[in-house]
């Protein structure tokens, strides 16, 4: 009996020793595995942030992000790489981590972010959904999944995810901002303003939220309030060009063209390659009849973006004002080449040809403008004028009548129809149209 007991005790010690060895081996393996994951994660994180000069190889980003999820939420708009290929490399690294540790939520979330940047939106949604499945309280995953859904035009799905992120983290300013943008798209302006205001309340230095709230106020014609928001956005982030552009747009609406030009110039100073800023400044100069300056700005916009059809069209309009008709036609033709559905370019080219007495060709352009936009009353009036010049009086009357059908108070259409009726010796009809023309003209004054 005693011997048996001693043997059992000896066996127990051996088992304990073996178990201890196994545990030690597992511990060492886990440490090696953790060290490998940590190194790989940090390399991937640095890749996806290669544009950030403050990024450092000496910082353990995995440890920071795992211990403070709030940092992840505040860093989200700073994730920028120098090259699109960096996101592919980072995504591959996060995939490798997930092969070692399939339920590593942070790597899943980062992989999803890289897919967003690479425009693999459905794949990103899958990754964020896996994160949520593992941890239903992961607010960042809901937020980013909402962003992915937006790219797939699933606005309601995005709103649902932003709302869930807010439910989990009530002080999630970015989620309020993004939900506000979707409410804006849905025409729910009061809800949008509430969301942007809440984002600002939670983060008083959130310049993007001020900029976005300003945009809503413009739609609601609250121009002074919009300018206040844009000014605040500029104050908080002086190198953020969007508020300058938006401020300039409001000033154009309120006829403050010189001040608008100053805003656009500031945006150009911040980003000399901003083709939209040059285009907008050119438009403001055109409003002030600074034609050469306008042409310069439109030309610069075209140089920066050779596919900028609207810049060609507007430069053509300015050239018409400068009586550079051939150059204007070239610009309108280029605008049409770039955008064959551009009603304005056909209309403007038709008007220029009318000035050059190219009546048949003008009729073709007006007909195309009407085909694209059948409710364009002015195109009917001008096509009627071209037909009148070719003594196509009946057809001209048809066009003027169509213009009147679209715009019953179109004085010009009544006037020209009256003249055309007189040409056909319909003097009673002509007198009636002339009478209506005079009444409408007096009313318009």
Structure, explained:
The protein is mainly α. It has a domain at 13-170: Serine Threonine Protein Phosphatase 5, Tetratricopeptide repeat, CATH 1.25.40. It has helices spanning 2-48, 61-67, 69-75, 84-100, 105-117, 121-134, 139-151, 155-168, 173-185, 189-202, 207-219, 223-236, 241-253, 257-270, 275-287, 291-304, 309-321, 325-338, 343-355, 359-372, 377-389, 393-406, 411-423, 427-444. It is elongated, with a radius of gyration of 33 Å. The relative contact order is 0.03. It starts with a helix and ends with a helix. The protein is 79% helix and 0% strand.
Descriptive key words:
445 residues, mainly alpha, Serine Threonine Protein Phosphatase 5, Tetratricopeptide repeat, 24 helices, 79% helix, disordered N terminus
Can I get a quick summary?
The chain is mainly α.
What does the average pLDDT come to? Answer: 89
Give the overall silhouette: elongated
Would you count the extended β strands for me?
A: 0
Overall SS class: mainly alpha
For this structure, the quaternary state is single chain
CATH class of the domain at 13-170: Mainly Alpha
Fraction in beta strands: under 5%
End-to-end distance: 123 Å
Could you tell me the CATH topology label of the domain at 13-170.
Serine Threonine Protein Phosphatase 5, Tetratricopeptide repeat
Detail the poorly predicted runs. Answer: 1-9, 21-33
CATH homologous superfamily title of the domain at 13-170: Tetratricopeptide repeat domain
Order of helices and strands: HHHHHHHHHHHHHHHHHHHHHHHH
Helix content: over 70%
Tell me about the biggest sheet? none
The total of helices stands at 24
Estimated radius of gyration: 33 Å
CATH architecture of the domain at 13-170: Alpha Horseshoe
């Amino acid at each position: 009996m005693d011997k048996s007991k001693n043997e059992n005790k000896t066996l127990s010690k051996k088992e304990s020793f073996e178990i201890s060895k196994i545990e030690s081996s597992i511990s060492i393996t886990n440490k090696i595995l953790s060290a490998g994951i940590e190194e790989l994660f940090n390399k991937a994180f640095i890749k996806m942030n290669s544009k950030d000069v403050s990024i450092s190889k000496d910082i353990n980003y995995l440890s920071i992000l795992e211990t403070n999820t709030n940092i992840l939420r505040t860093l989200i708009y700073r994730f920028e790489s120098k090259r699109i290929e960096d996101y592919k490399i980072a995504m591959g690294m996060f995939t490798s981590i997930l092969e070692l540790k399939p339920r590593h939520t942070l790597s899943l979330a980062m992989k999803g972010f890289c897919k967003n940047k690479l425009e693999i939106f459905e794949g990103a949604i899958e990754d964020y959904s896996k994160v949520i499945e593992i941890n239903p309280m992961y607010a960042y995953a809901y937020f980013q999944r909402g962003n992915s859904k937006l790219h797939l035009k699933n606005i309601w799905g995005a709103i649902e995810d932003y709302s869930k992120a807010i439910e989990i983290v009530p002080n999630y300013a970015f989620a309020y901002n993004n939900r506000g943008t979707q409410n804006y798209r849905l025409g729910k302006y009061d809800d949008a303003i509430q969301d942007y205001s809440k984002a600002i309340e939670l983060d008083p230095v959130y310049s993007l939220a001020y900029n976005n709230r300003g945009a809503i106020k413009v739609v609601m014609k609250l121009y002074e309030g919009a300018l206040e928001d844009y000014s605040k956005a500029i104050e908080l982030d002086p190198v953020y060009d969007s508020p300058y552009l938006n401020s300039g747009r409001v000033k154009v609406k309120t006829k403050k063209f010189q001040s608008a030009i100053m805003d656009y110039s500031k945006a150009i100073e911040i980003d000399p390659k901003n083709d939209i800023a040059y285009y907008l400044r050119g438009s403001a100069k055109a409003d002030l009849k600074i034609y050469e300056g306008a042409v310069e700005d439109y030309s610069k916009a075209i140089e920066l973006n050779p596919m900028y059809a609207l810049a060609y069209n507007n430069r053509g309009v300015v050239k018409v004002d400068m009586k550079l008709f051939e150059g204007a036609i070239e610009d309108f033709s280029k605008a049409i080449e770039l955008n064959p559905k551009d009603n304005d370019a056909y209309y403007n080219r038709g008007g220029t040809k009318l000035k050059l007495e190219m009546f048949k060709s003008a009729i073709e352009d007006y007909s195309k403008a009407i085909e694209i936009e059948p409710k364009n009353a002015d195109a009917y009036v001008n096509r009627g004028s071209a037909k009148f010049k070719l003594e196509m009086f009946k057809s001209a009357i048809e066009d003027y009548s169509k213009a009147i059908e679209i715009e019953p108070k179109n004085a010009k259409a009544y006037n020209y129809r009256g003249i055309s009726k007189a040409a056909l010796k319909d003097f009673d009809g002509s007198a009636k149209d002339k009478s209506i023309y005079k009444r409408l003209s007096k009313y318009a004054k």
